[in-house]
Amino acid sequence: MKIENILASELILTPEGKIYHLDLAPSQLAETVITVGDPGRVKMVSKYFDTIETTAEHREFKTHTGTYKGKRISVVSTGIGPDNIDIVFNELDALVNIDFEKRTEKSKKTSLDIIRIGTSGGLTPEIEVDSFLISKLAIGLDNVMHYYAKTDKIFIREFAQAFINHTDWNPDNSVPYVVKADKTLLKKLSSEKTIEGCTITNVGFYGPQGRVLRAQLQDQGLNEKLKSFEYKNHKITNLEMETATMYGLGRLLGHSTLSMNAIIANRASGTFSKDTKATVDALIRYTLEKIVE
Ligand code: R1P
């Protein structure tokens, strides 16, 4: 059934006809989208573009649309966390799949390629600082996806159940879910320079990722349990805050998503990259080249 007459309170448009948070008009978005967390990273990507046709900025959402070696690409910052992914993914989808004038879902859908270039912490010693990790699978410990219907087809239930059993998961927390990367993008962006991994996405940087400064953790042993978890030869490799939500919403809305992680910390050895900017820049150049290959 086609969704019609979407109210002004639900599909919020500016007086210029732009989507509310991203402040973009449909014509300003390319079908290949790179997402970055940090608004400052948008320029680190678009400085490699041949031309920039659109710049937009509202709150933490900054966009540059242009071409790289002739291919039209938008780079959009999401800020930090799964809650922002909910906003960005719904608005990116609205830009291509909703007719803003009629406030009606379009009959012909557009599928975007959405690629995250983010930073992340490796969980085990093998995941070296400054390496490039592609999330083949993601375990979501956030709750964004649980507010949506029809997730049955996209969640890998047995994998999530094995994780729940292994970690003796606290039922007061959100129920973990497992989602896959888009196969075609995964193949296209992989090479001998990348490693594949299973990424944990959580809602916070400190407690939710097992970091203690002063506040103590509810489950002090969680990161050790993450390290020892294994399901059908998959081991958890890294922790960050966006990937699973991206994979979940991308699949639900019919877009292809992939998460590229610059590993800037190793939680097992307690080490941190000596030059995160150089590592992120190298991942940006690698990803742009792979997109146009
Ligand atoms: C935390 O510092 C942020 O860095 C990581 C996490 O996922 C979180 O968003 O990714 P980005 O560098 O892409 O923001």
TrEMBL record:
<dbReference type="InterPro" id="IPR000845">
    <property type="entry name" value="Nucleoside_phosphorylase_d"/>
</dbReference>
<dbReference type="GO" id="GO:0006152">
    <property type="term" value="P:purine nucleoside catabolic process"/>
</dbReference>
<protein>
    <recommendedName>
        <fullName>Uridine phosphorylase</fullName>
        <ecNumber>2.4.2.3</ecNumber>
    </recommendedName>
</protein>
<dbReference type="GO" id="GO:0005829">
    <property type="term" value="C:cytosol"/>
</dbReference>
<dbReference type="InterPro" id="IPR035994">
    <property type="entry name" value="Nucleoside_phosphorylase_sf"/>
</dbReference>
<feature type="domain" description="Nucleoside phosphorylase">
    <location>
        <begin position="33"/>
        <end position="269"/>
    </location>
</feature>
<dbReference type="GO" id="GO:0004850">
    <property type="term" value="F:uridine phosphorylase activity"/>
</dbReference>
<dbReference type="GO" id="GO:0004731">
    <property type="term" value="F:purine-nucleoside phosphorylase activity"/>
</dbReference>
<dbReference type="Pfam" id="PF01048">
    <property type="entry name" value="PNP_UDP_1"/>
</dbReference>
